[in-house]
Amino acid sequence: MRILSGIQPSGSLHLGNYFGMMKRMVDYQKNNELFCFLVNYHALTSVFDAAFLRRQTYEAACDFLALGLDPNKSVFYIQSDVPEVTELTWLLSNVTGMGLLERNHSYKDKVAKGIPASHGLFSYPVLMAADILMYGADKVPVGKDQKQHLEIARDIAFRFNSTYGETFVVPEPDIEDDLAVVPGIDGQKMSKSYGNAIEIFSDEKTLKKKVMSIKTDSTPVDQPKPVEGNPLYDIYALFLDARGKAELKERLLTPGLKYGDLKKEIFGVIWDYFEPFRNERKKLSEDRGFVVDTMKKGASKARQVASVYLEKARHNVGLDYWNE
Ligand code: ADP
Ligand code: TRP
């Protein structure tokens, strides 16, 4: 099966990105054909600092490689290294109804959060559809927040196929309900852009500070603590199996547990979990030549697949006037 997903290099990658997308991608690469990429064209909708974008793109590439994405098994690349995706975006734009984009929650949410209401931001889902359709992806692993974007991509694929004849694979979203939304330290969705993220590769002091500042309610120590909607439970549970989760629930429901102690424990669990990846990450970040070379090789593999779909689309819409 062909599995594909991308992530914006618009800030440091965090636990939500890891459990919602990155870990699942790394797990999938064992038995599937995997396409994974960093969507720096998409990041331009919210990042207006060139040096920052360059740095974050490089850092995100190091993160994925350190976390186990194997560039020999998978196709790992930077979106803008296959600029043909912008051409496909244009072809798709003409079968994308305005209403479809006007109903997009993510656009409204982002504008409400202060991201400029540009045409790029409005047509973000069309570029995302091109990312997916250009590689014939069957399945797209993402967090729940991307559900509507996937529906738009499917809708665009249907419209294109029914207007011009069978051209694209209609992709299936792959959303794990259990891991749907990882909360940030303020209890809201963890996001690079909300200042509430627990970053995967932050240093020990920063990580500890972040975990200690996770927002908790004011239940007294001698009372049972809530499980539902408690970010401490939700974050700790990411690292636990079914038995571990049941035990954690029991501990919360038993009076006497101090939130401060639980936070220290959570910090230890996160720090230890990423230990082996941290060492790998350090080596990679010091080997710029290897990382850049790996990304360029990934793009040339990606382009081979992309060009087949793009040529088919160009032909089906009638851009190949020489075949008249
Ligand atoms: P961010 O909101 O941090 O900018 P992105 O929108 O770039 O994250 O998302 C990248 C991937 O990570 C997507 O598949 C998205 O669904 C997933 N993801 C992001 N935040 C979370 C979260 N808090 N919980 C679960 N998955 C998440
Ligand atoms: N919109 C996605 C996000 O913010 C990133 C993305 C861009 C993507 N193109 C994609 C995800 C294609 C999956 C497939 O997370």
Outline:
The protein contains 15 helices and five strands. It has 324 residues and is mainly α. The strands form two sheets. Strands 1-2-3 form a three-stranded parallel sheet.
Structure commentary:
Helix 8 crosses helix 9 and helix 10 runs antiparallel to helix 13. The two termini are 36 Å apart. This protein has two domains: 216 residues, HUPs (Rossmann fold), CATH 3.40.50; 72 residues, Tyrosyl-Transfer RNA Synthetase (Orthogonal Bundle). The protein is built from 15 helices and five strands. The chain is 54% helix and 7% strand. Bound molecules: adenosine-5'-diphosphate and tryptophan. Adenosine-5'-diphosphate binds next to helix 1. The site of adenosine-5'-diphosphate has 18 residues, from helix 1.
Characteristic terms for this protein:
mainly alpha; binds tryptophan; 324 residues; 5 strands; 54% helix; two-stranded parallel sheet; Tyrosyl-Transfer RNA Synthetase; Rossmann fold; binds adenosine-5'-diphosphate; 2 domains
H/E element string?
EHEHHEHHHHHEHEHHHHHH
Largest sheet: 3 strands, parallel
What is the count of structural domains? Answer: 2
Silhouette: globular
CATH superfamily of the largest domain: HUPs
Tell me the layout of helices and strands.
Elements: E1 2-7, H1 15-28, E2 33-38, H2 40-43, H3 50-66, E3 75-78, H4 84-93, H5 98-102, H6 105-112, H7 119-122, H8 124-133, E4 139-141, H9 147-164, E5 172-174, H10 204-212, H11 231-237, H12 242-253, H13 259-273, H14 275-285, H15 288-317
Parallel strand pairs: 1-2, 2-3, 4-5
Helix pairs in contact: 3-14, 4-8, 4-15, 8-9, 10-13
This protein binds adenosine-5'-diphosphate (ADP) and tryptophan.
